[in-house]
Amino acid sequence: MGLSGPVAVVYEAGPSGFGLYRSLSTSGIRCEVAAPSRLHRPSGDRIKTDARDAIHLARLLKMDEITSVSIPTVEQEAARDLVRAREDCRADLMRARHRLSKLLLRHGIVYSGGEAWTGKHDQWLREEALAGLGSRATRLTFDSDYDAVLTIQARRERIDDQIEQMALDSEFTAVVRRLGCLRGVGTLTGFALAVEIGDWHRFTGNSIGSFVGLVPSEYSSGASRSQGPITKTGNTHVRRLLVEAAWHHLPRYCAGKTLRQRWDLAPAAARTRGDQGNRRLHQRWTTFLQRRKRHTIANIAIARELSGWCWSLAVMD
Length: 317
What we know:
The chain has helices at about 20-25, 50-60, 75-105, 120-130, 135-170, 175-180, 185-195, 205-210, 235-245, 255-265, 270-290, 295-315, and strands at about 10, 30-35, 215-220, 225-230. It is mainly alpha-helical. It has three domains: about 10-60, no CATH class; about 75-170, no CATH class; about 175-315, no CATH class.
């Protein structure tokens, strides 16, 4: 390009991936992939164009004020795509189920036989719910929505099988087995956490909660200090997984058959550490209940501490 060296390049992380970074790094050119949420921008700047963004990035790079994202390997990025495809499938299935249930609700048909989306509920949909629909057009709509639910369920099961096969023999296998020593962290959750976090050593037990947005926001001035809701920054998928896993620590702790099967695959040190984490997190739940904390608020606190226990297991050699 005719530029006198050394040359440095920066671009914002986005849907284009990391192909440009790998190509430039192979050519010996320093390249930084900036985290868009960490780019400092003047509060009075109300004009946004590609040219101004490029100049702004170049100035930040010159001042060494770029916060770079962690660059995954090609294999890690491919595994992350599979995990996120499963997440998209979960969202599609939830929307399809909502469409079907709301269609029946509009016609006064409500299931009251127990938990929804079970085998019993599926039989009720195919027999009683369908029989309660009057017009032919409504039946056709029901068939379309019900077929969408079945199709997405089958797609989700195929992706689950593929993830479980990768979790058995991949670079993430050791981490997944250690994370599985904690309640609520099965193969799918452990593999997703391992893939999304990538390099666990860039965090500490305290900082990983901040990375996934599970720490409270803060507004302080002078002697006053006010904390608000959690920041919800960072990786949304990881935060949702941790919040869902935290609910598993509410019931009384007892190592059941499934948990012991996961323990058998992990090293002895990981089993001991996992047992300590399970006891500690359930004890924290008990303390919150005694203080009459709202369950949703308590669960966020448990999820934040759970992220630290996951980190301690992931970095364990």
